[in-house]
Amino acid sequence: MHRELTIENFKCFSEKTKIKLGKITVCLGSNSVGKSSVIQACILLRQIYEQAALFKDTQVREYTIQLNDLYGLQLGDAEHIKSSKTREDIALKIDDYEYDLVSNNHSPMEMLVRNEYDIAKMSSDGGLFSKGFYYLNAERIGPRNYQTINSKMVDNCGVYGENTVHLLSVLGNRKVNESKCYSMGKDKKVNTFSKQIEYWMDYVIPGIEINTDDMTELRISKMSLRQPALDTGFLSPYNFGFGISYVLPIILTGLMAENGSVFLVENPEAHLHPKGQSHIGYFLAAMAWAGVQVIVETHSEHVLNGIRIAALKNAISSEDISINYFSVDTCGKDTNHKVENIKLNERMDLEMWPEGFLDQEEEDLRTLRELRRANGKDSIVGKGN
After folding, report:
1. For the chain, what is the mean pLDDT?
2. Domain coordinates of the chain in residue numbers?
3. Bridge partners, 252 (sequence order)
């Protein structure tokens, strides 16, 4: 399991910045403060490993990595993502593996990197360097009647969830690791992918049944949904909004991810009711306790609370959860991006509460009280806060 990520001269992180990692890592903060940069740094490190593995039986030690398209990256020109124009390199470090990424004068959309580490050792350490790697972008595919079947063998849902329906068809009767099985009022012995998907999906978005069908001759996979409580037949996913399509690849990825691998997921709360947001947080925590290192970028306090509930319910150590709050200090024309690691105690209480950290509800309620007083309406009893 990775313990620490260090970033320097990459996007908003001009100074050396350390991000503590746990079995589950939560990146929180407002917009444009560096959360996504952490995910992107992990993807670049994954690329370095893949390139090194590709040339492992050669004398090649210097490689190029892509800044665009691969794993959904859209970083543009190398010069645009370096914080300092006077430095040539971007420094990335994960645990004991440290790399300098240098501009490629022949191709500005690529960077050069040199690897001196033993590939066999990297692979044995796992995490970003394991066989399996799983990443779901914030911009996942919404409702679709069909998804194209990838011509290659796929072992993940894809960056945007584009392989989800096909994988559901393929994996249906295969067994899920028992440590990942839903156990709240359900029979854990029914541990096929189809049943576990049904159980976990019902936990996050109740009352939906999923049907998939591979139409191999047309190279497409079809998905339809129904609500048994309403006695509907199976209908097009377009009748059910975005929540199901956005959360389904998260559930499937968590269940299929190999132990010792890393699962990066952006905005798991997207298109979910607050209860669903809490429950997807619980699910991600359950996958982390089962052996998948999870790194979450989120704006949702409900996702965080779901993780805390999962930890208390399953007697998980607070040391296994790393909460990182990203913010910006502004002094005149100078801005400083910083990351604060917020510890949890054994009761899963936050031991510090930085200014701006998940306090918008309190701010809004304070503003409402002030407006009511100003309007002479603060004497109304029993009408909310």
Report:
1. 91
2. 1-132+261-373, 138-256
3. none
Looking at the domain that runs over 1-132+261-373, which CATH code has it been given? 3.40.50
The upper half-sphere exposure of residue 24, i.e. CA atoms within 13 Å in the direction of its Cβ, equals 29
Task: For residues 204 and 275, give the distance between their C-alpha atoms in angstroms, rounded to a whole number.
Answer: 8
For the cut 70, the answer to whether the pLDDT of residue 187 exceeds it is no
Helical packing angle, 164-171 and 243-256, nearest 10°: 50
- Could you tell me what percent of the chain has a pLDDT over 90? 69
Cα separation, 13 vs 34, in Å, equals 8
pTM above 0.90, yes or no: yes
Q: What is the pLDDT of residues 273-326, one digit of tens each?
A: 999 999 999 999 999 999 999 999 999 999 999 999 999 998 789 999 999 999
Dig out the tokens for 237 from the structure. 């996913």
CA distance 110 to 108: 5
Helices (H), the chain: 35-54, 119-125, 164-171, 193-204, 243-256, 274-289, 301-313, 360-374
Which residue matches tokens 């936050």?
350
pLDDT at 236 over 80: yes
A 10 A CB-CB count for 104 gives 16
Q: Is 373 exposed, middle or buried (0-12, 13-18, 19+ CB in 10 A)?
A: exposed
